[in-house]
Amino acid sequence: MLFYPKGRVRADATGHNRPAPAPMDPAPMGIAEAAVMSEPLATGLLASTRIATARGWVPASRLRAGDQVLTFDSGCQPLRGVDRGGPDIDPSDARATDQGLNAAVAQVSVPSGALENRSPLMLMPGQVVLLESDIAEAMFGDPFALVPAAALVDWRGIEAVVSPAAPILHLRLDRDEIVYANGSTLLLCPAVPGTPPGAGDGPAPGHPLPMHAARQFVARLIDQETVPEVPGTPADSPV
């Protein structure tokens, strides 16, 4: 049995608020990054993503209706189903050619530790991630922000890559929930279609940031972690 903190507990501060960086001319995008940013953003979980459940860490491909999935706000909640975005076969199988699974797709590569994940993590560009930051509170009035994975590119070594396509899974619960993946990465999973908004116990996670706002937020995060501190001088004090 795994034990996790339940509810939105504020983490220790990792830095101080800083003014927004001055506008800069955007650097030319590579092919992978441009593909990741292309809308509409593809969503869902890759089959290998490990999800926290009442019986331990389970690859998304092995989750079934009735499994108790650990959520950020509501404890363990029953999984109502798993929708598959492609045939459940090995993309290296010859049959995959006919199914269109061998086409290259843009994904977001998250190195270990970047999002408190214990192992490398691959995300679809539209998969929404929950982040907590003082910067989010300063910008949006809430320390928690829901951010599309594509917006995280260039932060903490997160990058856009082009990978062979694979089956994509969508976990379905009674309400929008945040689940744990590969450690403490927090991912949004939507409710079963047709469920009334706000159904179930606990607060709703909120709404994902639009891409332009998410990119501005991540730019502030990058600035916070790259602007050097003056030794012995509090960051909020005049130098």
Explain what this protein looks like in three dimensions:
The structure is a single chain. This protein is of the alpha+beta class and 239 residues long. Helices cover 15% and strands 26% of the residues. The chain is built from four helices and 14 strands. A three-stranded antiparallel sheet has the order 1-12-6, with no helix packed on it. A hairpin with a 3-residue loop joins β4 (68-71) and β5 (75-78). It is globular, with a radius of gyration of 19 Å. Residues 1-7, 9-27, 86-102 and 235-239 have low confidence and may be disordered.
Number of helices: 4
Task: Please report which band the strand proportion falls in: under 5%, 5-15%, 15-25%, 25-35%, 35-45% or over 45%.
Answer: 25-35%
Main sheet, how many strands, which sense, barrel? 3 strands, antiparallel
Mean pLDDT, rounded to whole units? 79
- List unreliable stretches of 5+ residues: 1-7, 9-27, 86-102, 235-239
Termini separation comes to 50 Å
The helix content is 10-25%
How would you describe the shape? globular
Give short descriptive properties of this protein:
239 residues; disordered C terminus; alpha+beta; 3-stranded antiparallel β-sheet; disordered N terminus
Per-chain topology:
Blueprint: H1 31-37, E1 45-46, E2 50-53, E3 56-59, E4 68-71, E5 75-78, E6 81-84, H2 95-99, E7 104-110, E8 121-123, E9 128-132, H3 134-140, E10 144-148, E11 159-164, E12 168-172, E13 177-181, E14 185-189, H4 211-226
Antiparallel strand pairs: 1-12, 2-3, 4-5, 6-12, 7-8, 7-11, 9-10, 13-14
